[in-house]
Design goal:
This protein is α+β, with helices and mostly antiparallel strands. It is built from 14 helices and twelve strands. The strands form three sheets. A five-stranded mixed β-sheet has the order 5-6-1-7-8. Strands 9-12-10-11 form a four-stranded antiparallel β-sheet, covered by helices on one side. A three-stranded mixed β-sheet has the order 3-2-4, with helices on one face. The structure holds a DNA duplex.
DNA sequence: TCTGGGGTCCTAGGACCC
DNA sequence: TCTGGGGTCCTAGGACCC
């Protein structure tokens, strides 16, 4: 079989680049990529963190994932911009539209990463390196942000090489280049080697990807289980999953929040849950799913995590019903520790293609109508247009979590 | 470093059935 | 009455990703 050619396209400092491109396009003269600037933070949450940073933040030693408080202490005149997820989605889609011109087989891996199968496309757009440069320059010129492109024969190697040197670069990591380009890298640069695995490998004196590749896979399996065999194969560059075009169906939907104060009161905890369930269920209904599993989780002020879930004998997308179950689960789990983080999640999703009212134990038909009416009002007039009266004097936010605010953003018409 | 929010997958143990 | 072992489902927790 002819060897495949896979591209991995990765937007450099995506959130910051996109915000910068947007501001320039709106007529601002300052490019926030050229000053110390970060994207991140939500005034409502207790500790916002750095989601993306400009290159000039490097000399202040600001790291992604660091708290804004810490970043500000290192650089007092740091510009902090809240993430604008609607903009990010638009930019991601604009990138996808460019990539689609170079291959019908592209896969979105995250909001700022795509795989593209370039196999057999040489006749149309030239050698892989040439095509990658064409794509990179087009994105820069037409969309206003830079990308890194990694080229190899599978997704794993393409992804690792897109990470080599940034920004605005094209790299290759073909199998024959593995010993020189990949094996000297620290083992934590390998995909799916996170902090826990790194710790275990370091404890056994395995520090580079090359050393991992040279380790007996059965020994790796003895302390990493099947994950050990997986990363051993990765260390040899072996991976052969296809670039899957089209949307991958989601398995679950969740919503969680770090509270701005310790929650110690049951009624308060229930209200926080409701605010999370409200947005989660709106998303659930918007996607046309019913859920058969409800889970709650929390984190105590001592940073201990707990979770509790229940499989239902029926499927539902009702805000009230899921809230009631979530409250039951919380009550069963919680022993009164002060809470600083609460989450709710639904899973076991099925498509809401047919409704069978006869199966409904309670008056779900009416509840569905109410839920949908509320969704519609919020869609037309904003999330705060209709809120539960229980929030009026509670001091809590009635709608919590990662809602994409459907505010009117001036379209980036000229570049998107 | 004192740690956000959205996900996915794996593992281990217990319950239950045959 | 006690017993084996396999399969499946369920739950909690951990690890990983961006």
């Amino acid at each position: 079989m002819k060897r495949r050619i896979i591209f991995h396209i990765d937007v450099n400092s995506a959130y910051l680049s996109w915000e910068a491109a947007y501001r320039l396009q709106q007529g601002e003269s300052l490019d926030i990529r050229t000053i110390p600037a970060v994207i991140g933070g939500d005034p409502q949450t207790r500790h916002g963190i750095v989601l993306a940073k400009s290159i000039p933040t490097k000399k202040y030693d600001i790291k992604t994932g660091e708290t804004l408080y810490s970043a500000l202490s290192k650089c007092p005149n740091l510009l902090i911009v809240r993430p604008n997820y609607l903009l990010f989605r638009q930019c991601s889609e604009a990138l996808r539209d460019v990539l689609k011109e170079y291959s019908p087989t592209i896969q979105q891996f995250s909001i700022d990463e795509y795989f593209l199968d370039y196999t057999a496309m040489e006749n149309l757009f030239g050698e892989p390196l040439q095509a990658a440069h064409t794509i990179k320059e087009r994105v820069k010129k037409e969309l206003g942000f830079t990308v890194n492109i990694g080229i190899s024969t599978n997704k794993l190697l393409a992804k690792i090489s897109s990470d080599f040197q940034k920004p605005d670069k094209v790299h290759t990591l073909f199998p024959e280049e593995i010993p020189t380009k990949m094996w000297p890298l620290p083992v934590e640069d390998l995909f799916l080697v996170g902090s826990a695995t790194t710790r275990k490998l370091h404890a056994r004196n395995i520090h580079t990807i090359g050393e991992l590749a040279g380790t007996d896979p059965l020994y790796l399996r003895s302390f990493l289980k099947s994950h050990g065999l997986l990363i051993w194969n990765y260390a040899h560059g072996r991976e052969n999953s296809p670039v899957r075009p089209g949307a991958i169906p989601i398995k679950g939907i969740g919503n969680s929040t770090t509270t701005s104060f310790d929650v110690e009161d049951l009624h308060e905890a229930h209200l926080v849950l409701l605010s999370l369930v409200e947005t989660m269920c709106t998303r659930l209904r918007h996607k046309g799913y019913l859920a058969q599993l409800v889970a709650v989780s929390f984190r105590t002020n001592e940073f201990l995590n707990y979770s509790h879930q229940r499989k239902l004998s029926f499927s539902t997308d009702s805000t009230n019903e899921i809230w009631e179950i979530a409250c039951q689960l919380l009550d069963e789990l919680w022993q009164g520790q002060p809470l600083r983080h609460l989450g709710v999640r639904v899973g076991e999703l099925c498509q809401n293609d047919f409704i069978q009212p006869a199966f409904f134990v309670r008056d779900r038909v009416k509840e569905r109508k109410i839920d949908r009416a509320i969704d519609e009002i919020r869609e037309r007039f904003g999330a705060q247009a209709i809120i539960r009266s229980s929030y009026l004097h509670s001091g809590l936010k009635p709608i919590a979590g990662g809602v994409i605010t459907e505010e009117e953003y001036p379209m980036m018409t000229s570049i998107l």
